[in-house]
């Protein structure tokens, strides 16, 4: 059984906009006081508007009758002045009105810009403070959509809200002025506004539904576009097949449909309002005439106020319609901000000055409760050692790396630092002491120096150059067109894969870490590039604790000990020659490597 249709009552309207304010209010911050000031300015603007309309009506009446002296203004205001003086007064009021309107236009624009900046800043802070579990679960393009389209639309709501508040206050100010001139006119305005609101409420509900769909589809579209960028190379190689083109066309159509419906209602509702309002205006003039208001000046003022009221009524309707479109964006942003804030990284409170020993004690871990990945892993490594980590795919190597980087937390057990639980130490110190070179290093669009420094202001140019020397890259950088000021980027063709890997090694070394973790540092390199990276790592032996996740046995040649992982368990940790004798997997990959094949 379907529920009875609920017509928009004042209580429901207040409840709806109270809900909207609860979603929107947190975005305003310090702008709330400015909205209050703007509201006061709108009331003043409405009064000035009413006075100006009354002056125009009186001047028009006097001119039409050939008078040089204006004896009275419409309504209860008694005023007598020469026509020329009244013209000058009217021009002064008009200039004041113009200045006031410019100020009323600037205030919401400045608030909107401030809200967008604050919102993007808040999103960035909360996203970067969220745990890696939350960050890594986000589909590509989602955060980009929040920072761009969603933030822009939410900031536009500030302007829309301000315009709506201003229009409402000026409308009611004119309504009060209309009571002074003609009580029947004011009653007609109230009745007409109520009729228009009830008539257009169903369209407003439909628009909110289309706007919610549009907000959701914009996010999905941004994710799809991000995926297109990431797959650009593969698309060039394999070609854009018919299925791929149909998938892209499907994404476009999913956005087109709610966009069409939303934009149509944005234009149709105000136009419909205007047509109905003119009909009601003519009806109101008929009633005013029948009520006996036949004085030309009074009737002229009434007409001007009615027309001007229609303008502000249309603005109110347009603002309400636009807010219906923007509310879903604000709700999505509010949920994202709360989601990030509810899943912040766990931090410690103790300083970490130096790492001498790093390990795990009886660590279990799983990405979810149903899928355990690591089982009772325990080991310890000391500063100066080089520890290799090997095992088949899915053995838990990457999970160990993420736990040692404190990107994730163990389900049970502890990551130990100097025989103490690693969670006790501040993350800021941990990031400084433990560095990382990923298997697929990412480059910034910027100079070589910027890429090595990576937004760390405490790293000097001398530190950048020293790190490049340690990574065996300094001489090659000097041979580039602008040396350390050469601009490179993720898709730049200026550097090879081996240079990219060593540049990111220099990035990791620039902070002078105690622990350096490398995930498959040579897996995608040719023999010459691999040798260059190996030489760089060999020079660091004895200075830092090196942990190398590797598939190539050649990468393990500098290791003091090797950890062998299998099915999430530590099958052994010992010198390579001991494992060659005692561990079947290590012996197998060594034999495969010696036979000239790749390790599985």
UniProtKB/TrEMBL annotation:
InterPro entries per record: AAA+_ATPase, ABC1_TM_dom, ABC1_TM_sf, ABC_transporter-like_ATP-bd, ABC_transporter-like_CS, P-loop_NTPase, Type_1_exporter
Record's bilayer topology term: Multi-pass membrane protein
Subcellular location: Cell membrane
Chief localisation class: membrane
Pfam families according to UniProt: ABC_membrane, ABC_tran
Record keywords, A-Z: ATP-binding, Cell membrane, Membrane, Nucleotide-binding, Transmembrane, Transmembrane helix, Transport
Positions of the ABC transporter domain: 358-592
GO CC annotation: plasma membrane
Transmembrane segments: 35-63, 83-106, 156-180, 186-204, 271-290
Chain ranges of the ABC transmembrane type-1 domain: 36-308
One GO MF term: ATP hydrolysis activity
Family named by the database record: Belongs to the ABC transporter superfamily. Lipid exporter (TC 3.A.1.106) family.
Protein name according to UniProt: ABC transporter ATP-binding protein
